[in-house]
Amino acid sequence: MSTHIAYTLAMCTHNHADRLAKTLHSLEALRRSQLPFELLVVNNASTDGTSAILEQTDWRPQGVPVRVVVENKLGLSNARNRAIAEACGEYIIFFDDDETLGPEWLKEYEQAIRTWQPDALGGRIEVLFEGGERPRWLQDELLGFIGQLSHGPTPKELSDPSTPIFGGNFGFRKVVFEQIGTFDADLGRRGGDNTGGEDTEIYRRMVDAGMKVRWVPDAVIYHRIESPKLRKSYFLDLHYRQGRMEGRRRRGAANRLPPLYLLPQLWRAFSAAAERRFRQGGDQSLRLEMNVAYFVGFILGWGLS
Question: How far is residue 197's CA from residue 100's CA, in Å, rounded to a whole number?
């Protein structure tokens, strides 16, 4: 660990050339921390124009050490684990390639670190809709599935497994990974594969280990969503893949025949979704339909993996 770098700001990117430039150019508006930091970009097996953008220099914040490394093993967890291996900072703070950092983002994290010395910390994520209006069917309860996160306006310690911090805006003391391990490479996005869960899994590992996780609500990041590209199928696929992954893991070495108790659960989920759709229309039933997709994935993951 370098004694000259307090924080490594790490961004992993894969085939997001159309969104990446805006994120990079927003870094110049970031208020600087009192202690030195570096910017680390992990280019994760990109095949579009990402490499050409990263080779340019006009986006690089003046006076900030910048390193770009290539991780050819596809997968967000693989890219984050490469960032951990490469980082020089005492803390590694992650953000995504389709986000805009709030001007006070790093300053808020620095204040929390200097005050509390947490093992990990996470901040608020707001959703910005670009290129059109928010779809009518996108209810508030669904915003968390596209990255929105808030655990309230008050800074506090998090210890409940149901209140995770999200990968689009979180940081860790680097030595934490020596104690609990790195990100699970079987989880997290992999190209066009929607499978996630790597961020909540490592958060729960930290909670189980009794580590200090700090909520920093004023360390705000804005997740830019292209409204015309939002589709209901994305949410259904997300839950199907989550169910399939969890079914495979839950089965372990057990019999491939799915437990019979899953069938009534699937039927109840289907009946609730069908009734909501019939009574209130398709714009109100997506959340319940996602439950159906999850149980279908869980059953298939148990039986076919």
Answer: 22
